[in-house]
Specification:
The protein is an alpha/beta fold and 278 residues long. It folds into 2 domains: 2-83 and 170-274, Alpha-Beta Barrel (TIM Barrel); 90-155, DNA polymerase, domain 1. 42% of the residues lie in helices and 13% in strands. The protein has 10 helices and 7 strands. The longest helix is centred in the middle third of the chain and has 27 residues, at 84-110. The protein is globular.
Amino acid sequence: MIDLHCHSTFSDGSLTPEQLADEAVKIGLKALALTDHDTVAGLPRFLAAAEGRSFRAVPGVEISVDCAFGVMHMLGYWMDTAHPELVRQMEWIRNGRHMRNTTMLEKLNALGFAMTWDEVQAVAGEDVVGRPHFAQVMLAKGYAKDKNEVFDKWLGDGKPGYADRPRLTAEAAVALIRQAGGVAVLAHPFTLRISRDDMLALWRQLAAAGLAGVECYYSEHSADLTQDYLAMAREVDLVPTGGSDFHGEVSPGIRLGVGFGGLNVPDECLAQLEARRG
């Protein structure tokens, strides 16, 4: 059992990199990838915590990319985290996030929600601050009953408290990951909200740009959708990968390795993906 998609306190997860390593051992994972949003800052601690343990630690990242339809994220694995261009682009992304967060806080305050930056930062913890952290503060203050309500009413795309931020194009994200020595994988394709024909065309376009794989196995993919994505991946010659997208307390119900209980990412996916390196 492997899991190639999870988050720590360095983005919007509730477990530290060390706690994720402990959990991987506890549940018997053979491999676990840490893929925090738009940051690689937690990877040194994750790799150190996994040293000599019973599972293979895979260094990764999840980059939000520009998309005219739905939501698109790009996963990268095995990058050189000290690569100058990767360092520069990660800083650009973080700066864009900070500007967006400042605007969102101003909007939420104007809507009557009494929140401070210190409160949001305290919830975020280690590094990247995102919308889930604003949602956590709002829930703690009793402004909504759950995270879905917060996003549906205020923080979702186009909602009154939402603010956009600069993003790389999908092709630029793939190029960046490859330039830093890594392999690129399209995350959770169901969030793209496009037809099957358009999805295939997009996968072909990104494969031509250097995309190595697509996340076919995912907590929120149905069995039928998973099988359809697997067939599409074979057609386009992309490696099928998968992961739980585990966040801990931020997304209750999703467990490391098994998602909502039925996730099972084949071990061979990792070897197939690694074969695309270089």
